[in-house]
Amino acid sequence: MSLWESILVALDNLRVNKMRSLLTMIGIVFGVMAVVTVVSIGQAGQASVLNELSNYSDGYFVVFKTAGEGSSNASITLRDLNEARKLKGVKFVSTSSSFQMSEMRETEKLLINLLGTTSDITKMQKIDLLTGRFFTAQEQRTKQKVLVVESKYAEKVYGSPERALNRKVKLSGGTFQIVGVYKPQKSILGDMGGTQYNAYAPLESMPNSSAGRYLSSLDIVSENPEQMEDLMDEMKEWLALRHNAEPEHFTSQSGKEAQDMVSSIFGILQVVIGSIAAISLLVGGIGIMNIMLVSVTERTREIGIRKAIGATPSAIKLQFLIESVILSFLGGMTGALLGLLVGAGVSFFMALPSVISIWAIVLAFAFSATVGIFFGYYPANKAAKLQPIEALRYE
After folding, report:
1. 300 has a pLDDT exceeding 90
2. Is the CA virtual torsion 384, 385, 388, 390 positive or negative?
3. Mean pLDDT in the chain?
4. Which of 228, 204, 185, 200 is nearest to 61 (CA)?
5. What's the predicted TM-score (pTM) here?
6. Rounded Cα–Cα distance for residues 371 and 368 (Å)
7. Which residue has the higher pLDDT, 248 or 258?
């Protein structure tokens, strides 16, 4: 019997026992679906975060105070920010501090996450303005209460970004004037804080702002990205000297380091969760072995007849292996399709980029085929070893 004929016979046997074949494949289906879904969602989340990090300029890094004992003198102030602009090798410097404010609109309370920053931030990261402008360095120095709001807020309150321009906004931290509207970047973390709106404003115009204000970090862009590592060390030494502290009391992180860390974290999560999901593939493989053993028992007389008319043990073994592999392959194909659909659905509802993981599909198919061969070998070998006379006498 040729290979093609063996495949047709295997398909016919599976068709005759449709329900049993379907129940046997369930373990493989859900195992492959879980692996493909986990990997697809993980890669979509990773792509989203890396896309956010790619908005920053080349040579971008952050310097912040190291937490722990012995670093009480280590601090960063607005004076440091202004003086850092004069240092050799520094192209741009900025900072940001988050302030939670609210606005009452009739009976509705809107939560505003106000990011106090500097005008240089537009030169350091991509901010997509839809209408209006960003606040200027002059408005920053004179502590003007101006606001650049996201488009979701403008559409919610005023109906469109254009209608929001020059409007006055009474927040819990004062009255601000909208000078620009920007399009927010899609983010995996965007809605984790609940329903709130984001906006930019000059740091100096924030409540209780003063020249001695403590900052969480300095965001810096090096004039020469190739010399960024040296500038990072120089900035820590410079801050330590200004505040009578040690360079170890300050930490720096570049955009490249952040990207590598994100890729590493998502990679580990995908491997761990994917491995857990792959356990169901082993369960599905045991189900295949069980049903193939039942099939060998049911078809003992058929095996005897085939051997009596000249079928070799290798042909009998191949026949049952083909049935096992087909079961695994069909289950793997169904699981991969379902995994892609579930992954795409989750990505859609979480506003993540849709990523099709080819290697995850190939790995799932290869694993399911391996499961079919591994768990199908024992029943196939058992069928091949049956003696023709004993098989023909089997009732």
Report:
1. no
2. negative
3. 80
4. 228
5. 0.64
6. 5
7. 248
